[in-house]
Write a structure and sequence with these properties.
Elements lengths: L5 E3 L11 E3 L19 E5 L32 H13 L4 E5 L9 H9 L10 E6 L4 H11 L3 E5 L5 H8 L5 H14 L5 E6 L8 H8 L5 E6 L17 H9 L4 E4 L9 E5 L5 E5 L12 E4 L4 E3 L9 E2 L1 H5 L4 H14 L4 H4 L12 H4 L2
Parallel strand pairs: 3-4, 3-12, 4-5, 5-6, 6-7, 7-8, 8-11
Antiparallel strand pairs: 1-2, 9-10, 10-11, 12-13, 13-14
Helix pairs in contact: 1-2, 2-3, 3-5
The structure holds S-adenosylmethionine.
Length: 369
């Protein structure tokens, strides 16, 4: 059946789970949309729940110590399993895949996975955009092999240029110079659209907003400031620790003239601002103070193969590893992914302050940041 499509019969915002008919998902290039009409477009894949940093807002050392129950090797999805699920997701509408974690460069042979994912195509023959988020500690040695494997884009996380501030924030002995040399290696390897993400947390690194902006001006690298989020349940998040994006912009504007510019595409999470003197652009991601759930098209695949439809979820929408390992067909797996998305009604960030959401949230290191 050449023109096979996923046809939602019922996908309203009622409480009844939508039913749907699925015809030959393998040949399907349909778009699956959730109960708020948001299509499935992005897949974030966590390839490990381990990290070589202990950022206080993500994997605080007091919790993520040597006794923490990290996943065991056999529990992790293999590269072949990830590729299979990624391919099915592409058939359901995914156009961007981001590898994350934990620290994705800790996953042995990650290049092999990138090679597989870089070969994925839509039914029209368009390649999928493959990106990776990393703390860059290992980027100095990995940049060239990542490029050779077919990785298109890299986002580096860096919260400070100050030795002491960086070490405290990252809960490590690593120097920010290591991260900067990782970025330089990526540039030498030919990565042109590099981004740097800086999480801003009160009393952690707020004094670094302007110095970071100054450092990345004229570099061709887009620095994006991220509001500290209540992701996971172990970081002791308090609203008081959030520096709202507006205040971040005010600090930068007190030093450099900036003007807002148009987003690159519908649903872009960062608000874009350009330096009026032509020194490049910055972004702010205001997921706490200006929630963007209405345009969220991201699903997350955990290290052990559970699908999450919201970063702030407290449970998976489906376990894909068990059926994978029990020999489920393409059709059955596709149906599980599609059905999870059709049922999706998540809008955590918009409800955050309403008291309507509760429960322990899944850690970001496990479902992928
Ligand atoms: N280890 C990789 C890295 O550092 O980029 C990838 C995983 S990390 C969880 C992905 C991103 O999430 C990083 O940029 C990190 O700073 C950000 N992040 C983690 N916890 C956060 C929080 N509570 N609020 C905002 N951003 C957070």
């Amino acid at each position: 059946m050449a023109n096979a499509k996923i046809i939602p019969i019922f996908a309203s915002s009622s409480d009844i789970a939508p039913d749907f008919r699925l015809i030959e998902p393998e040949s399907c290039n349909g778009i699956v949309s959730d109960r708020m009409q948001r299509p499935l477009r992005d897949l974030r894949i966590s390839v490990t729940d381990r990290c070589n940093l202990r950022c206080e807002y993500c994997m605080p050392r007091e919790v993520f110590d040597e006794n923490y129950p990290y996943l065991q090797r056999a529990e992790l999805l293999s590269f072949e399993e990830i590729e299979r699920l990624a391919r099915l997701s592409v058939q359901l509408g995914v156009r961007k895949i981001r590898l994350t974690g934990g620290e994705p460069l800790l996953r042995k042979g990650i290049e092999r996975l990138i090679e597989k994912l870089a070969r994925l195509e839509t039914a029209e023959g368009t390649r999928i955009d493959i990106a990776l988020t990393t703390n860059a500690v290992l980027l100095g040695v990995k940049a060239q092999s990542l490029k050779d494997a077919g990785l298109a884009r890299i986002t580096v996380s860096l919260d400070s240029l100050q030795e002491e501030t960086f070490r405290r924030a990252s809960g490590s002995d690593i120097s920010p110079k290591t991260v900067l040399s990782g970025i330089a290696a990526a540039q030498r390897a030919g990565f042109t659209s590099l981004k740097v993400n800086m999480v801003v947390k009160r009393e952690m690194n707020e004094e670094e907003i302007v110095p970071m902006a100054a450092h990345f001006r004229n570099s061709g690298i887009v620095l994006r400031f991220i509001e500290y989020m209540d992701a996971g349940s172990t970081n002791g998040w308090r609203m008081d620790d959030v520096i709202p994006a507006r205040q971040i912009l005010e600090r930068i504007a007190s030093r450099y003239e900036i003007r807002q510019i148009e987003s690159n595409y519908d649903g872009e999470v960062a608000e874009r601002w350009a330096y009026v003197d032509g020194a490049g652009e910055i972004g702010v991601i205001a997921s706490v103070t200006q929630a963007f759930c209405q345009s969220c098209t991201r699903a997350r695949l955990s290290t052990d193969g559970r699908l999450y439809t919201c970063l702030f979820a407290n449970h998976a929408s489906v376990d894909l590893r068990a059926p994978l390992r029990l020999g489920a067909s393409q059709m059955e797996l596709s149906r599980l992914i599609a059905n999870s998305w059709l049922r999706r009604n998540d809008q955590y960030s918009q409800l955050r302050h309403s008291g309507a959401v509760s429960g322990e949230k899944i850690e970001m290191s496990y479902i992928g940041g």
